[in-house]
Amino acid sequence: MSTTFQLETSTSRANPTPAPMKRLTVPRIRDRKKDGETQEAIVMLTAYTARMAQLLDRHCDLLLVGDSLGQVIYGLSSTVPVTLDMMANHAAAVVRGSYHAVVAVDMPFGSYEASPEQAFENAAYLMKQSGAAAVKLEGGAAMADTVAFLVQRGIPVMGHVGLTPQAVNVLGGYGARGRSDAEAEKIVEDAIALDRAGAFAIVVEGVVEPIAIEVTRSVSAPTIGIGASASCDGQVLVTEDMLGMFERVPRFVKKYENLAETIEKTVESYAGEVRARSFPGPDQTYQPK
Ligand code: KIV
Fold it and tell me: Of residues 8, 121, 205, 247, which has the active-site annotation?
């Protein structure tokens, strides 16, 4: 694992990264919300590779190296099997491909729940290996002591409440949360506990809209919605979902493009030319001088 956090453009296929500039910082993201109001909504997208990070970077405030990479990149059936080293490697690539957005990395299932000490050790490992500036972990009140422990020791933490995909085996699926009064109350309590513990932002995923609005009103940290509400202080989507790489996506995803179709058509053209022996053509072949 490389601990070089800069893109080596002389050997990389990636476009040169623009001249180094000052990255956004966690305190600047946190301070977007003042007295309960966020003038400029926070833009977050997931990124797992250096090239995607380059393409997203200048449009985003935060790049999240989400453990959704388990499904999106590795074809796993859930995020549960994702490992610390998978996260560290992809986070390092995203840091190398970006210069502007804050890079936050998901702590995978099993890497933080046992104790605050376990969480510190693994969060520090992720940050040292990748150069990411913050971690995200799932869970509410049960994780508050851990969040406080990390923040007090120099690790910025983003919380994640509502639908928490790592808990799929307890929740029994990926349906929207907060439909019963008890569940709604618990989600708000969870967010308040994370806020008090010092989380700099809180992802609110897959909840009925009134709960997302109540959570946003109840916490001082910015909320970042996904399947939540336009009233959240920011939004996040899985980039491949919004680019249209998958046919089946959650209902809350808006497909801004249909990249899967574009890729299929492009590959069809390539395959046709290879079979017709029209590729490579004169422009793609070397001739003796
Ligand atoms: O893993 C992930 O990509 C996430 C976002 C969807 C919030 O947690």
Answer: 205
One-letter amino acid for residue 153 of the chain = R
Euclidean distance between CA atoms 90 and 69, whole angstroms: 9
Other Cβ atoms within 10 Å of 208 Cβ, number: 18
Map tokens 């809350």 to a residue: 252
- 273 given a catalytic annotation: no
Distance CA 19, CA 199 (A): 31
Q: Taking the complete model, does pTM exceed 0.90, yes or no?
A: yes
DSSP conformational letter for 176: P
Closest of 54, 71, 3, 64 to residue 29, by C-alpha: 64
Dist. CA 111–CA 122, nearest whole Å? 6
Instruction: Answer yes or no: are the C-beta atoms of 21 and 100 closer than 8 Å.
Output: yes
Mean pLDDT of 67-94: 97
Cβ–Cβ under 8 Å, residues 221 and 202: yes
Protein residue with its CA nearest to atom 8 in ligand 1: 66
Residue bearing the CA closest to ligand 1, atom 5: 66
Find out if CATH 3.30.450.40 is the number for domain 26-284.
Answer: no
Q: What percent of the chain has pLDDT over 90?
A: 91
Domain locations along the chain? 26-284
Token readout for 3 is 């601990």
Q: Is the peptide bond before 18 cis (omega within 30 degrees of 0)?
A: no
- Report whether the peptide linkage leading into residue 116 is cis, meaning its omega lies within 30 degrees of zero: no
Q: SS3 of 58, please?
A: helix
